[in-house]
């Protein structure tokens, strides 16, 4: 087993200030979460798995806004042993649990998001619109496999926007971009756009609004994400068709009103 596996088991020291920041704004960007060797080793596995599973071969200029935003490949942890080690990392799971202030976390699913050279914007949205989960104890780790300068399309946040209910009914689309841009403009929420250094990882809750700019470089923006939920998360009755599809795909076998304890949703930490 590669030496970086032990690195993924090492605890990460989170300060009280960091936890308080996350609890207030529902996002945080943390430096030195992963080292260069770990990212190189697991990044290679993620890239190879994405290349093998990607089914999007339509030219960029023939796709809609969602299709231009990124290439998506899901649940890499089921496809490759190295990807499994990465996604089920206790180091990342510990950070997720401590930020949310839960006793542990389960996997909801993982998702590679590769924004191609020339790829378009990712419109404003809140992830939990898609999730049939009973509480807001959800968090996504956004893990770049390389530095992300401003012109590559780093993740942008509306800090504290989990507090608003308007827009929670919107899927990722041109409509969500326009409507939420207008709505957020008249709030006091700070719009945060920052580059990512190598090893820097951000975490955001399911209801905080976020977007990403276009990739104006000639390189692919390679990002891996892991979506965690409270280990005691209960499945709710789906409120839209996307939530029903997510239940069937990511929580198969779970029952409404019960903890989502299925082989697809292992406890990662706690």
UniProtKB/TrEMBL annotation:
UniProt cofactor(s): Fe(2+)
Top-level lineage group: Bacteria
Keyword Oxidoreductase set for record: yes
Name of a matching Pfam family: PhyH
Keywords: Dioxygenase, Oxidoreductase
Listed SUPFAM superfamilies: Clavaminate synthase-like
InterPro entries reported in the protein's UniProt record: Phytyl_CoA_dOase-like (IPR008775)
GO-annotated molecular function: 2-oxoglutarate-dependent dioxygenase activity; iron ion binding
UniProt keyword Oxidoreductase, yes or no: yes
Protein name, as recorded: Phytanoyl-CoA dioxygenase
Organism in which the protein naturally occurs: Arsenicibacter rosenii
């Amino acid at each position: 087993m590669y030496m970086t596996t032990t690195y993924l088991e090492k605890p990460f020291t989170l300060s009280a200030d960091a936890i308080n920041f996350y609890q207030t704004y529902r996002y945080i960007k943390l430096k030195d979460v992963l080292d260069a060797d770990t990212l190189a080793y697991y990044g290679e596995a993620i890239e190879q798995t994405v290349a093998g599973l990607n089914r999007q071969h339509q030219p960029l200029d023939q796709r809609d806004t969602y299709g231009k935003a990124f290439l998506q490949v899901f649940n890499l942890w089921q496809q490759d042993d190295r990807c499994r080690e990465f996604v089920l990392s206790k180091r990342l799971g510990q950070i997720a649990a401590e930020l949310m202030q839960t006793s542990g976390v389960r996997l909801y699913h993982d998702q590679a998001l590769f924004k191609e050279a020339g790829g378009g914007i990712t419109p404003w949205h809140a992830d939990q619109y898609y999730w049939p989960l009973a509480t807001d104890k959800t968090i996504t780790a956004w893990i770049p496999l390389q530095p992300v300068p401003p012109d590559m399309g780093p993740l942008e946040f509306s800090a504290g926007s989990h507090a608003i209910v308007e827009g929670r009914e919107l899927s990722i689309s041109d409509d969500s971009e326009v409507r939420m841009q207008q709505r957020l403009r008249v709030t006091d929420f700070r719009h945060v756009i920052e580059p990512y250094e190598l090893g820097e990882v951000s975490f955001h809750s399911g209801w905080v609004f976020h977007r990403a700019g276009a990739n104006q470089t000639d390189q692919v923006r390679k990002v891996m994400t892991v979506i965690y939920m409270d280990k005691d998360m209960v499945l709710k009755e789906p409120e839209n068709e996307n939530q029903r599809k997510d239940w069937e795909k990511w929580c198969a076998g779970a029952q409404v009103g019960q903890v989502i304890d299925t082989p697809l949703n292992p406890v990662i930490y706690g």
